[in-house]
Fold this protein.
Amino acid sequence: MKFTKISSSHHLCLKKLLPELGKFYDGHENAKFFDQLINKDKKDNNGYFTIKKEIWSALGDMDEFCGFVCLNYKRGNTVKIGPIMVDPKYRGNGIGRFMITSILKKLEKEKIRKVYATTSSENVPACKLFQNAGFRLEVELPEQYRVGNKEYIWGYFFESPTVIFLNKRSLFDPNSSEEGNLQVKDFNPETDVEYLQKIIKIIKEWHDDITPNFLRQIIDATNRGLDFETKGKLILVTKDINNLPTGLVVAAPKRGGSVKIYPMYGNTPSIEGMIGKLRRIFKEKGYRKLYTFVHASDDRYIQQLINFGFCLRGTILSPYKSGHDLAVLDLFI
Ligand SMILES: CC(C)(COP(=O)(O)OP(=O)(O)OC[C@H]1O[C@@H](n2cnc3c(N)ncnc32)[C@H](O)[C@@H]1OP(=O)(O)O)[C@@H](O)C(=O)NCCC(=O)NCCS
């Protein structure tokens, strides 16, 4: 069995396997998903956390195509594996296992810090595949991609972090402002860039690889509408009576009904106002839930979000920087 970068002659074989993923993910559209995978093979220009994608294939002794896996290189020196698929004719023969073992060898050589994957709780073979390869279940997210099932987040470290850091900075501003005098507005690239920069500076404490390009990519994404396929984003800014910003949130709709709202910065009334507006906007568009990340040691912010109705779902270990764990919270809308 060979493990090689996919050749374009196998793109059609890959495409034929994709419809099966629709079983686990609402909103799965095969042709669009294929374009996203294949045309982003070199460089992912739309994802602000994804740096590049690579697709590898497993070939049999006669060079027959047996399966493929997509590697998504992320900021913070991590790689997300997925999708991984084996042609139904060849399943149950260790090919999935062979691909995972090959990936781990390759990524260890590349000095990648963490490898992770997500699977639907209903996808028993995929869950087993990661569990048996040594991945650890970190978080369970209910109805993340589909009603009635959970999404599992699996993590694998070549070397576990030896020190766990407490947060020095917070996305929660303890200062208060008059709730009635706040307005939640759309991000204005003319006036709000500096404020966005300030918030990105805060998250740099627990994110590696935040370059000036990161800021540009977020702002550019606000011009792409609110389509998860084009990775469009919405930025809201809360302003006080003097038109000064008191809070900001970046919202990114995802496949299957969830909206990532991260980073979300502000004091209590600003956050409350932004969540209220996000709920209205995304509920109308048919989305089910909002989810966000908070530094796992930021108890005050976590409690504040719980007070707003969020549920704490667990902790992702060092997702963006070694030793900085993030709590995951979600809110059904
Ligand atoms: C998940 C998938 C890639 C596994 O590929 P595979 O080549 O059949 O898997 P393997 O034969 O290497 O088996 C790997 C592990 O999965 C488990 N497994 C495989 N098929 C299974 C099944 N039908 N039921 C339960 N466990 C199963 C085995 O326990 C095995 O662990 P072990 O080697 O320690 O015993 C394959 O089932 C597939 O393509 N599924 C459809 C696509 C998909 O859902 N991908 C995941 C989404 S990201």
